[in-house]
Amino acid sequence: MPDALPRDFFFRNRDGAGTWQVFRLDADGHTVQQVTFEPLNVDAYGISPLDGSIAFVTNNQLYLVDTAGAGRRMLIDGGVVDPNNPWVNSLSAPVWSPDGQTLAYGHGGLNFINPGTGAVNKVLQNQIDTSPGFALVKSSTLPMPIPLMAPSC
What we know:
There is one protein chain. By secondary structure, the chain is an all-beta fold. Helix content is 3%, strand content 42%. The protein has one helix spanning 86-89; strands spanning 9-14, 20-25, 32-34, 42-47, 54-58, 61-65, 73-77, 92-96, 103-106, 109-113, 120-125, 134-137, 146-149. A 4-stranded antiparallel β-sheet has the order 4-5-6-7, with no helix packed on it. The chain has a 4-stranded antiparallel β-sheet with strand order 8-9-10-11, with no helix packed on it. The longest helix is centred in the middle third of the chain and has 4 residues, at 86-89. The termini are far apart. The relative contact order is 0.12.
């Protein structure tokens, strides 16, 4: 019987303890396997188009595992997140280049890392406007503060 899917499908779901993890649905359309086993939530992930490696963010750290979840290694430690300014040092949104050689992620701006060598290149620094008339507010429904433009008085 042919596969139901063109390739394996990865998704985030809660494990038995209620923690967000990465899971894989095999191309057969039936077999589901948990790929990450983190004590804290997996916040974001990206799948390499080259070999299916999974880059993921948990506890403000960027990790890499193979397609089965083995070989876990930390690529970046973002440190403790400042709850008053989480956009300053939060790790976010790992995205692979089409050739699978470079991983882009957010951390104080836009960064590229070569997972093979560990070489990091910050290509865009965050620009946070704290001038008069630019208010930063925290929303009770959003996970991070959001900038709002306010007219200067």
